[in-house]
């Protein structure tokens, strides 16, 4: 191919020029002496129109024999076409087949069951729906990091292997770690972010986290990515404000840059356009009262289940903060409420439309004696937290932070029925392949 190689998303800048596209055949239909080749290259799709009399006989016959997802180089002239989804079409003048599969592509036009699609996740990612979701995922992550960077936060990576339990022993993946020691896959990077906050003030970590709970709900994954900011001298209220502004920024950013992808998923944009500060804010006590009025039987003092969160969020058109939960259902590191020792200064941010928790945050316990007491109450090994307790021994300070589950945010923004589509390689209790 002698024409310059151009990516599909840049074709509109080359009207009337001869170009080469390198990619895959996404679809094909023929009408006698014309082939309509739907081509993709990762940046977009374009239709290539191949007329028999305008190309060599060999090229036309090769196009006729192409299977879906054949890899090709296509040469042609760019012409504007307002009817085309990409705004352009390619008048094909040449075709080079890089590889034509020997069999039919497994994921065809017919409907497939979710297990089949997940077994073929490495191929399913090529579909237009999955590409739209992954582009939105990339934008969510980009927007979150951009917001924190602009607000003066520093990225501090936390370890995947740890000897400290962050979120309760029942959800741990335990590993043998040399010399008969035990290690765990990180449930959270928070404890390390707290240490970094004492050094740099405003920090965050971002990476994969692991939970061994045998959850089978549409909101749970075994491995997921979490963004965890931690801020020195932020109290509970400032922590909530940070969460609110971050989520609003992410949604605004995705609406600006991924409108086409959202529309292709059938997302109601008007619901996302309402996601602007201030969000709703109620106490745990008020939430329990509302739930009982709405028919829930969850007793006071219990944490909320998925059904409770669904019921609650269906009453609001924007995200809702539920704050100050009972101490007994929350993690050991949360700050005791100054007016009620049975509660802690924490919040869960619930997304509307039944999507539930996307953020869990709290002011951290900065009193060393209370923190040690909570560690003992939870039956944790105090020695494993000696370094964590040092943060209270040497210059203790008011500080707060939160963890935002990236896949849960994506599932909500995209309007997905199940969180597994929000991850390129979902891990559940039944799935570790591909």
UniProtKB/TrEMBL annotation:
Subcellular localization(s) per the UniProt record: Cytoplasm
The keyword Aminoacyl-tRNA synthetase appears for this protein: yes
Quaternary assembly: Homodimer.
EC top class named in words: ligase
Organism for this UniProt entry: Aminobacterium colombiense (strain DSM 12261 / ALA-1)
Source taxon at top rank: Bacteria
SUPFAM superfamilies from the UniProt entry: Class II aaRS and biotin synthetases (SSF55681), Nucleic acid-binding proteins (SSF50249)
HAMAP family: Asn_tRNA_synth
Organism placement in taxonomy: Bacteria, Thermotogati, Synergistota, Synergistia, Synergistales
UniProt keyword ATP-binding present: yes
Swiss-Prot/TrEMBL GO biological process terms: asparaginyl-tRNA aminoacylation
InterPro entries: Aa-tRNA-synt_II (IPR004364), aa-tRNA-synth_II (IPR006195), aa-tRNA-synth_II/BPL/LPL (IPR045864), Asn-tRNA-ligase (IPR004522), Asp/Asn-tRNA-synth_IIb (IPR002312), NA-bd_OB-fold (IPR012340), NA-bd_OB_tRNA (IPR004365)
Protein name per Swiss-Prot or TrEMBL: Asparagine--tRNA ligase
Pfam families: tRNA-synt_2, tRNA_anti-codon
Reactions catalysed: tRNA(Asn) + L-asparagine + ATP = L-asparaginyl-tRNA(Asn) + AMP + diphosphate + H(+)
Cellular component annotations (GO), alphabetically ordered: cytoplasm
Keywords, in A-Z order: Aminoacyl-tRNA synthetase, ATP-binding, Cytoplasm, Ligase, Nucleotide-binding, Protein biosynthesis
First-listed, main subcellular location of the protein, grouped into a coarse class: cytoplasm
EC id: 6.1.1.22
Similarity-based family: Belongs to the class-II aminoacyl-tRNA synthetase family.
Residue ranges annotated for the Aminoacyl-transfer RNA synthetases class-II family profile domain, each copy included: 134-434
GO molecular function: asparagine-tRNA ligase activity; ATP binding; nucleic acid binding
């Amino acid at each position: 191919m002698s024409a310059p190689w151009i990516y599909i998303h840049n074709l509109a800048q080359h009207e009337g020029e001869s170009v080469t596209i390198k990619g895959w055949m996404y679809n094909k239909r023929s009408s006698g002496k014309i082939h309509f080749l739907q081509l993709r290259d990762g940046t977009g799709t374009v239709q290539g129109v191949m007329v028999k009399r305008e190309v060599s006989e060999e090229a036309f016959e090769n196009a006729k024999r192409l299977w879906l997802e054949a890899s090709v180089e296509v040469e042609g002239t760019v012409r504007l076409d307002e009817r085309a989804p990409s705004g352009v079409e390619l008048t094909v003048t040449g075709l080079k087949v890089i590889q034509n599969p020997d069999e039919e592509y497994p994921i065809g036009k017919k409907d497939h069951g979710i297990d089949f699609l997940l077994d073929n996740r490495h191929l399913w990612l090529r579909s237009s729906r999955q590409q739209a979701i992954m582009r939105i995922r990339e934008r969510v992550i980009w927007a979150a990091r951009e917001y924190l960077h602009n607000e003066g936060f520093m990225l501090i990576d936390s370890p995947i292997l740890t000897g400290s339990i962050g979120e309760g022993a029942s959800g741990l993946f335990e590993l043998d770690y040399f010399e008969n020691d035990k290690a765990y896959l990180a449930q959270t990077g928070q404890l390390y972010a707290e240490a970094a906050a004492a050094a740099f003030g405003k920090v965050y970590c971002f990476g994969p986290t692991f939970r061994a709970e045998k959850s089978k709900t549409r909101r749970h994954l075994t491995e997921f990515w979490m963004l965890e900011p931690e801020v020195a001298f932020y109290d509970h209220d400032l922590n909530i404000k940070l969460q609110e502004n971050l989520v609003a920024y992410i949604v605004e950013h995705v609406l600006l840059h991924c409108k086409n992808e959202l529309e292709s998923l059938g997302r109601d944009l008007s619901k996302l356009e309402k996601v602007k500060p201030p969000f709703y804010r109620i106490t745990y006590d008020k939430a329990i009262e509302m739930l009982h009025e709405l028919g829930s039987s969850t007793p006071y003092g219990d944490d909320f289940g998925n059904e409770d969160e669904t019921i609650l969020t269906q009453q609001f058109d924007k995200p809702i903060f539920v704050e100050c939960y009972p101490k007994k259902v929350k993690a050991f590191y949360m700050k005791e409420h100054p007016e009620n020792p049975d509660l802690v200064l924490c919040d869960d941010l619930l997304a509307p439309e039944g999507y539930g928790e996307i953020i869990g945050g709290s002011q951290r316990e900065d009193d060393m004696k209370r923190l040690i007491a909570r560690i003992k109450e939870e039956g944790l090994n105090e020695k494993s937290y000696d370094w964590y307790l040092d943060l209270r021994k040497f210059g203790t300070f008011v500080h707060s932070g939160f963890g935002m589950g990236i896949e849960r945010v994506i599932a909500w923004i995209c309007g997905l029925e199940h969180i597994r589509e929000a991850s390129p390689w979902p891990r559940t209790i039944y799935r570790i392949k591909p």
